[in-house]
Write a structure and sequence with these properties.
The chain is of the alpha/beta class. It contains eleven helices and twelve strands. The protein starts with 10 loop residues before the first strand and ends with a helix.
């Protein structure tokens, strides 16, 4: 993929999305970033776009014409919308020559993710897919260390949330796409984004249903190692947590605690996109990696549908 490079100076980054994730993470990180300018906020709901843009001293956009206007005044676009909305809008952004800071998953269909990857390649724009642990200060270095160590025999990963538990107060519980697609698509990308860099690409997938919305995966990797993955959004609150463990020639290594702070991780992702846009060197978490995550998760979903 040949990338056209950005000029020096702050990168003008437009924000597509004005919901909770954009409000908590994307907008404040972009507005405070010394190497970026928040060039505007586009939202499907005018009142949400207006409120978020006003809070950060930038312009609000809505509607088809508003999206075109935002793209015209931006060097790059950050996305905080549902994945399949993201996919179609990201194609438009790439076609307009904007670099892409995508959220995970890129899309929930292989066709959707492929369209984004093809558009980015066609336009020669840089891309980064925001998988939190790959950019968070407490975990990014640990993942690199495990990849460098090698010799891993097996691994296990667990992402268990209680998003839909009675009395849960998270704003993300109201997300229709999370209700529909469940833990496989919401937290599955996080698990794969840690396992694949260390163990290699996935060569075999076995998927099974667990209790409530739990999905369990057995994976084989190019290194020869295997991994198991447990994913849930509807688990018991007392059982919620995130764990990753590698076992191999170097012994046992576990994911450090407290490494998933999203705001700082997103700032680092902005740095990564800026570097890729200016140097033309693709980041390991680019849209092609995002496409691969979608391919693995789609295969798991197909197996679950046949079960």
């Amino acid at each position: 993929m040949t990338t056209h490079t950005a000029s020096a100076g702050p990168l003008r980054i437009g924000l597509v999305g004005a919901g909770p994730w954009a409000r908590m993470t994307h907008a404040p990180a972009l507005a405070a970033h010394p190497g970026a300018v928040l060039s505007g906020v586009w939202g499907r709901r005018p009142e949400a776009a207006d409120g978020l843009a006003s809070a950060h001293g930038t312009e609000a956009y809505t509607g088809e014409a508003g999206l075109d206007a935002l793209l015209a005044t931006s060097d790059a676009v950050a996305f905080a919308v549902p994945p399949d909305v993201q996919a179609s809008l990201a194609v438009r952004a790439a076609d307009a020559g904007c670099h892409l800071l995508l959220d995970k998953p890129v899309a929930t269909t292989v066709a959707g993710a492929s369209a984004v990857a093809e558009a980015a390649g066609r336009a020669g724009v840089a891309s980064v897919v925001f998988c939190t642990l790959r950019f968070a200060g407490g975990t990014a270095g640990w993942i690199d260390e495990q990849a460098a160590a090698g010799g891993w025999f097996t691994a296990r990963a667990l992402w268990m949330g209680a998003l839909f538990a009675p009395g849960a107060r998270s704003e993300f519980a109201a997300s229709p796409w999370r209700r529909e697609k469940g833990a496989l698509w919401d937290v599955g990308p996080h698990a794969l984004s840690v396992l694949i860099p260390v163990l290699g690409d996935v060569t075999e997938v076995v998927a099974a249903h667990g209790p409530a919305d739990t999905t369990q995966l057995l994976l084989r990797h190019t290194s020869g190692a295997s991994s198991t993955v447990t994913l849930a959004l509807d688990g018991p609150p007392a059982a919620a947590g995130t764990e990753v463990e590698f076992r191999g020639e170097a012994g046992v290594s576990t994911l450090p605690g407290g490494g998933g702070e999203a705001l700082g991780a997103f700032r680092t992702a902005v740095d990564a996109l800026t570097a890729a846009a200016r140097t033309g060197v693709a980041h390991p978490c680019d849209v092609r990696f995002g496409l691969r995550l979608t391919e693995v998760l789609a295969e798991a979903e197909a197996q679950l549908g046949r079960a």
